[in-house]
Design brief:
two-stranded antiparallel sheet; eight-stranded mixed β-sheet; 10% strand; single chain; 12 strands; alpha/beta
């Protein structure tokens, strides 16, 4: 489970420290990288003079791109043997005689840039052989799509194995697995089922998710259907009443049945209240019903329920990494229910896990290892990096000549949130060029980090290119029609930069043509409280011919949009590496941590956010 190489990095790096230094140096000194990842937004592609493509990329790169189609360029970025090409191009070679794919040979600087990005990108290959995978039980896999089933199958097996590793290290087993942001609780349900039989504490803030999860627990045969119990209880009441009319018995008064199953639900607002359960655990010989002066033993029906694992639900919005106040009441109650266990076995030893915790939620999970005495291990996979906050505030100097002063950029960069990025002291104190210390990633860069260029097919990439081109062309029209101010050229004061409109999602049919996209987008924007009236007055009035004229005028730029977006998505792999490594570095800096590492736990082709951060406490 553990590895001598705690980071999945290229073999050229002897130690993690050398890799981290190179990663931070590249990300703070490469102007091209900073502009591609956070310095420019594709929306502004056509609204600058000169345009972004011309200003950002070297002339010899553009000349090379002109002679190759976009799919060849993508192959060069992602799959071509770059070391071989770099070895071919030597200072003494006749450059004019060198060709690649029957046309121009890649410039040396382009090859060097590709090599740097590849070397600094964390490896994503899944280590667990498929032949060793454990299939999900049919009743547990219901309602999971293919991607979710793959994630749950892989991660449940990984967590179970890690639990065994922790047991071996500490000489004591994990008592409970805590799922941060459990949602529909697919992971917890799997871990509570055969062959794992784990005790799960599922923390989720949305009541409707917990309700849905409990229904799926019934279908997975982890819980008794409350309706079935109620029906059986009603029948028992009638039978019992008939018996008491025939015999003299102790006077009884039936009390309402506390419905439910082997599940628990805790409202975090009442975490300290003594009566926290609204559901009970049923073993094979449990009885229902009670009296004030005696007891009538009423046997419930015996559905085929596997009660070796159990699930406790806590409705709570996680705002930091401290858990003891919400998990302890559940653990104490469950220790009473499992009364056959010894006191030693009911001591809390928690492992905190999550699949695709968004933004700061993963930060809270990582910190839980440090903040809670009961938490002895974590294994968490992050996602949605754009939802992270920023801890260090904005940069004090403007490195990028492209940076738009969008209100959301300003708002997020000024948050100074103690829960945000970066987590580690090393990132916080890293000396960057200029007057600002510390590693910063704005919301544009963080949003890009979820790209998965290695999963692009020709069709998928062309669809993505079309969407970006349509949006950039629409922005050009909004500027020309006076809805938005023009975007300045390099060197203009930052305060004069353009604003933008957030359109949101549009139906698939809107992308069949630019005119269809234009009509769908403007119809939606016309409802905007700030710009809606201008849209209706100056943009909705464009005729179909005028729309087609715009598309014809800028048609040659579609390839440039495609090339730039390919470079952006390729480079953004380094952004994800920066984020994930920061979390590992944070754990590495803590005296309480025995071991920590990063490991791919999903097949990248099915789930590209596949890097788990793992930590074990001393």
């Amino acid at each position: 489970m553990t590895s001598k190489r705690p980071l999945p990095i290229d073999e050229i790096w002897g130690e993690p420290d050398a890799y981290i230094e190179a990663l931070l140096s590249f990300s703070t000194t490469s102007v091209l990288f900073m502009n591609l990842c956070g310095g420019v937004h594709m929306v502004d592609f056509l609204t600058r003079e000169p345009d972004v493509y011309t200003t950002l990329l070297p002339e010899n790169w553009r000349s090379f791109f002109d002679q190759h189609d976009v799919q060849q360029i993508i192959d060069l970025l992602l799959r071509e043997d770059i070391d071989h090409l770099r070895g071919i191009q030597r200072p003494t070679a006749d450059q004019a005689s060198l060709t690649w794919n029957g046309a121009a040979f890649p410039p040396q600087t382009l090859l060097d840039y590709i090599s740097s990005v590849r070397r600094l990108t964390l490896r994503r290959d899944l280590c667990t052989p498929p032949s060793k995978s454990i299939d999900l039980p049919t009743q547990v896999a219901m309602r999971m799509n293919r991607k979710k089933a793959h994630e749950v199958q892989c991660f449940s097996q990984y967590v179970a194995s890690l639990s065994d590793t922790v047991h071996e290290y500490r000489g004591e087993p994990i008592s409970h697995i805590v799922d941060f942001g459990s949602g529909q609780n697919y992971l917890g349900r799997t871990l509570a089922s055969p062959p794992y039989h784990k005790h799960i504490i599922a923390i989720e803030r949305k009541h409707q998710y917990i309700t849905g999860a409990k229904g799926m627990d019934v279908r997975a045969k982890l819980a008794v259907d409350p309706k079935a119990l109620y029906i059986q209880r009603s029948k028992n009441d009638i039978d019992c009443a008939n018996e008491t009319t025939k015999e003299t018995a102790t006077e009884t008064t039936n009390t309402p049945l506390l419905v439910e199953t082997n599940l628990q639900v805790l409202d975090s607002e009442n975490a300290t209240a003594p009566n926290i359960l609204d559901e009970i655990t049923l073993g094979p010989d449990d009885v229902l019903g009670s009296t004030t002066k005696g007891q009538i033993r009423e046997r419930a029906p015996r559905p085929e329920i596997d009660s070796r694992g159990n699930i406790s639900y806590i409705e709570h919005e996680i705002e930091d990494g401290y858990l003891e106040h919400i998990t302890n009441p559940v653990i104490k109650s469950s220790s009473l229910e499992f009364s056959n266990e010894t006191a030693e076995k009911t001591n809390a030893r928690l492992m905190v896990v999550s699949v695709h915790s968004c933004g700061n939620l993963l930060h809270h999970g990582v910190r839980s290892l440090i903040l809670n005495p009961s938490v002895v291990a974590i294994a968490m996979v992050g996602c949605c990096y754009n939802l992270m906050t920023e801890r260090l505030g904005p940069v004090k100097q403007q490195l990028s000549i492209f940076h738009s002063q969008h209100p959301r950029l300003e708002e997020t960069s000024s948050s100074y949130d103690s829960h945000g990025f970066p987590m580690s002291k090393y990132y916080e104190s890293y000396e960057t060029p200029g007057t600002t210390s510390g590693i910063r990633l704005n919301i544009t860069a963080r949003a890009l980090a979820v790209q998965a260029p290695h999963n692009w097919t020709v069709k998928a990439s062309e669809v993505s290119f079309t969407r970006h081109f349509f949006r950039a062309l629409l922005q050009r029209i909004l500027v020309d029609r006076g809805v938005l101010p023009n975007c300045p050229g390099p060197g203009s004061p930052s305060g004069s930069n353009t604003s933008t409109l957030i359109i949101g999602s549009l139906p698939k049919a809107a992308f069949k043509s630019f005119s269809a996209y234009f009509r769908a987008a403007t119809n939606k924007m016309s409802q905007d409280p700030v710009y809606g009236s201008k849209i209706q007055e100056h943009v909705d009035t464009l005729s179909d011919n005028e729309i087609h004229e715009y598309e014809d005028r800028y048609s040659q730029t579609r390839k440039y949009v495609s090339v730039l977006w390919s470079l952006v998505a390729f480079s953004a792999q380094v952004v994800e590496s920066l984020i994930v490594v920061d979390r590992w570095q944070f754990l590495r800096e803590q005296d309480l941590v025995k071991e920590c590492w990063i490991e791919p736990v999903f097949d990248y082709g099915q789930s590209p956010r596949n890097l788990a951060i793992v930590g074990l406490k001393k």
